[in-house]
Amino acid sequence: MTESSDAGVLEEAAYRQAVxxxxxxxxxxxxxxxxxxxxxxxxxPTLADKLAxxxxxxxxFAHVELLQSRIEELGADPFEAMAPFQAALDQFHEHTAxxxxxxxxxxxxVGDGLAADFYREIAAYLxxxxxxxxIASLADSGHxxxxxxxxxxGIASDARLGGRLALWGRRLMGEALSQGQRVAAExxxxxxxxxxxxxxxxxxxxxxxxxxxxxxERHTExxxxxxLDS
Amino acid sequence: MTESSDAGVLEEAAYRQAVxxxxxxxxxxxxxxxxxxxxxxxxxPTLADKLAxxxxxxxxFAHVELLQSRIEELGADPFEAMAPFQAALDQFHEHTAxxxxxxxxxxxxVGDGLAADFYREIAAYLxxxxxxxxIASLADSGHxxxxxxxxxxGIASDARLGGRLALWGRRLMGEALSQGQRVAAExxxxxxxxxxxxxxxxxxxxxxxxxxxxxxERHTExxxxxxLDS
Lengths: 230, 230
Prior knowledge:
homodimer; mainly alpha
């Protein structure tokens, strides 16, 4: 897509609204990830662990401004744009409040990984400028090593932990899917965008099915890196 | 002080221990400021306010790594170095848990301002390399405007708030002094450092008195910028 067709597609009101929705959903997701990680940091068994998680929290938060500015560039108020996504994301976090340090780690790793995979899939359908913003906002925090290391060590020293965390991973996936469906059902512009337009490729039902297969596969890979069945 | 006398003074075990103590106290202070601000962000009345406070939290946290590396350069483990200061700082925060959004804002502004003033006073007695690290770690988050604006608006719309927050400011100052004295009494190296050495200037009792006067004056200035009596 060239810069001029970029401007063209952005003039289309429905596309612009869908992009604003998408950026706002990601931004509010990063804000609630910050909240959740700052909260999880308190569960850390050592000060070094606490710092690692606080660093992840700030890493998520650092992306918010980039998304905010792009929403403003598109002529919308970032806070108004985020409002429709608060209920679904807050509810996701309420329904998946970690009961201990390990559940927090698994949630950070599995939840953020899943969200990043999903937004990366969608990014393929965006104008280049927005795509760059989305991709930049998903940059890995580089803390995966830390989580994998801690979770594997935890399982090694407590055999029952693996079973509990495997169930936890499945619950996270289920809750993410149900809140995702809720958002898709409520946000017409976003749903229409995913379906594509006359002059813009979109995802038909078969393509959406394939996308979910890819997301599930990558979720399974992440779980197994943690030493967990999915 | 030249780089060579720097090396000289750092070879002095007592000085090095005092510097490690100081850096560790600042570092743990920033970590607990992060915790506290991340917690306060939840009390924010709007999403924009929440973001402003989360940004302050991450700003504080961003300084920790710089301090950690300097502690490592001086041959100590940062986490072991921070341990002796946890009780005093945790207790300060327990005794001054904000009961609402405004108390959180005043605490962030007045508490961080006071700590920064104190460490800046001490920095004058440090070797240049350590002084640079300390000064950099105290860089203003640039959010003072935000706090002043919100607190003044709050007082304007609720006359009783000013009186309550003025009392709160006095309590913060009192609690900071009592925890500060506790640290000074427990950390011999730090206390000896403040007193100076044969070939190094220090603070005699009169100088310490003058320093406290300056700290109190600046505290009063901050309170009056917030529209509060101190």
